[in-house]
Design brief:
Blueprint lengths: L3 H19 L4 H17 L6 E4 L5 H10 L5 H5 L29 H15 L5 E6 L6 H12 L5 E7 L2 E2 L2 E2 H4 L5 H7 L3 E6 L3 H9 L6 E6 L22 H13 L1
Parallel strand pairs: 1-2, 2-3, 3-7, 6-7
Antiparallel strand pairs: 4-5
C-alpha cells in the first residue's frame, strides 16, 4: 500500500498554503476529504477514468492532486484564486480533467451519472468517481440521479460521500436531517459501503472491490481533519486563515 499518510500530509500543507495566500476559505471542507482523494488519485487513470468533484468548493485539493498527476503546471496550481487566474475556488470546467462544474450543490453527481452512462453505452472502459458532500443528500436531484444510475446498473460509477456532519451554516442534521444514509442508498439499489473516511485501508478496499452495480461509499469524516483547532469547528468553513492560524496549523501538520 502506498504511503497515504505522507501523501495526505503533503496535500494538507500545500492546500493550507494556497488558501492562506489567496485569503479564501473552505479549509475545513478541504481537510475532511483529503485522505479520500489521496487514495483515489493514487489509483485513478485520468486517460480513461473520470473524477467529478461535486463538492466543488474544495477545488484547491482537486488542483493539488491534478498537479501531482502531472495534469497541471506548478504555475497553474500556485495561481489559485489569484487575480486573473482561471483556477478559482470552485471546480469549473476550465480544464480537460474538470468536465463538470461543482460550484452549485447537487450538480456534480448528475453529471457523473451521465459520464458513466455514456461510457457504458459506448462500451468504454474506466470508472467515474464522484466525491459529494453530505449536504448534497438534502437535494432532490441527487435521488433522481441515483434512480437513473441504479436503473442502468452503472457498475462503472463510484460515489463517495464526505460525511463530515456539517453544512455551511451548521450541523447537517440540524439543517435538514439526513440520518440513515445507508438505508436510503440501499433503497435505491446501490452497493453501499460504509467506511472510516480517514482509514486508508478501508478507503482503498471500498473503491477497488469488484462491482456489479453502482457503488456509494459513505465515508465518515472529521471536518478540518489534521489540525486540532479546526477539527469539528464549523468556523473554518468560511473563515479566512490569518498569520497566526497559518503558522500554528503548519506547525501541527509538520509534526505529524
Amino acid at each position: 500500500m502506498a504511503d497515504y499518510g505522507a501523501i495526505a500530509r503533503d496535500a494538507r500543507k500545500k492546500v493550507l498554503e494556497l488558501i492562506y495566500q489567496a485569503q479564501t476559505s473552505h479549509i475545513g471542507s478541504n481537510f475532511s476529504c483529503i485522505d479520500i482523494m489521496a487514495v483515489v488519485f493514487e489509483h485513478i487513470d485520468l486517460d480513461k477514468d473520470r473524477f467529478v468533484l461535486s463538492k466543488g468548493w474544495v477545488a484547491a485539493s482537486l488542483y493539488y492532486f491534478l498537479w501531482k498527476k502531472g495534469r497541471l503546471t506548478e504555475e497553474e496550481l500556485n495561481s489559485f484564486c489569484q487575480d486573473g487566474s482561471a483556477f478559482i475556488g470552485l471546480a469549473e470546467p476550465i480544464h480537460p480533467d474538470i468536465v463538470i462544474a461543482g460550484g452549485s450543490m447537487g450538480l456534480g453527481f448528475p453529471g457523473a451519472v451521465g459520464l458513466a452512462l455514456a461510457k457504458k453505452v459506448k462500451g468504454e472502459s474506466g470508472t467515474v468517481y464522484c466525491l459529494m458532500s453530505d449536504g448534497e443528500m438534502q437535494i432532490g436531484i441527487t435521488w433522481e440521479s441515483a434512480m437513473i444510475a441504479s436503473h442502468h446498473r452503472l457498475h462503472n460509477l463510484v460515489v463517495i460521500i464526505d460525511n463530515n456532519g456539517f453544512c455551511a451554516m451548521g450541523k447537517t442534521e440540524e439543517v435538514l436531517d439526513i440520518r440513515n444514509l445507508k438505508e436510503k442508498w440501499s433503497a435505491f439499489h446501490f452497493d453501499v459501503r460504509e467506511i472510516d473516511g480517514h482509514n486508508y485501508q478501508e478507503i482503498e478496499d471500498a473503491i477497488l472491490r469488484p462491482r456489479t452495480k453502482p457503488v456509494v461509499c459513505i465515508a465518515n469524516t472529521t471536518k478540518g481533519k489534521g489540525v486540532s483547532f479546526m477539527e469539528k469547528n464549523n468556523l473554518w468553513h468560511y473563515a479566512q486563515i490569518k498569520n497566526d492560524d497559518y503558522a500554528n496549523a503548519l506547525n501541527e501538520l509538520c509534526r505529524k
